[in-house]
Prior knowledge:
The protein has a domain at 89-159. The strands form two sheets. A six-stranded mixed sheet has the order 6-7-8-3-9-10, with helices on both faces. A four-stranded antiparallel sheet has the order 2-1-4-5, with helices on one face. The protein contains nine helices and ten strands. By secondary structure, it is of the alpha/beta class.
Amino acid sequence: xxxxxxxxxxxxxxxxxxxxxxxxxxxxxxxxxxxxxxxxxxxxxxxxxxxxxxxxxxxxxxxxxxxxxxxxxxxxxxxxxxxxxxxxxxxxxxxxxxxxxxxxxxxxxxxxxxxxxxxxxxxxxxxxxxxxxxxxxxxxxxxxxxxxxxxxxxxxxxxxxxxxxxxxxxxxxxxxxxxxxxxxxxxxxxxxxxxxxxxxxxxxxxxxxxxxxxxxxxxxxxxxxxxxxxxxxxxxxxxxxxxxxxxx
Length: 248
């Protein structure tokens, strides 16, 4: 299988606090990879380092065979076009209509004519199960689950090669969370792209993951398929799974 993303010897600290400590990971093209771990272990920092939103201290981030960790200017902008992210809170613009939120990157980033951008935005809203009428509403008129769908539509309208999810079910009730998980899986299959998700929710893992990696003490200490995870001879993996079952 082709490797889409290679992370090598990543180090990231904030003062004396070590977050990433020599992390290595390969993410294959067109797979759904999920990083698990408890809150505060550094999952969001890893995501931000991958995108260049946070500079790494040491290490290498290779995408499609190209080193990207220290890109600047036009080269960095070209690199970022390969990615789209669905933030934990949705990060929608309250002052804009729903379709304007979805079309924002097309209009402001690519200079696409408004009519064309609106047409594409409505198409993507329908893809995530929302009607054109919803496109005329504003974020504060929608539930948390519907806002999450809008955030996904906004991400996929950019036609990324890699779609990133930051705790996609955080703050959602179990039924809505399951619907979002099913939507993520459907988008992954229908769009035929690479997805990279960070979560502490095992329901998300079981629904969307092709492979799973466990983050602990700044490193990926275990990785494998769902079947392999159930039999993993790793104390931290089994403890995490057990705690999730207990909490559920």
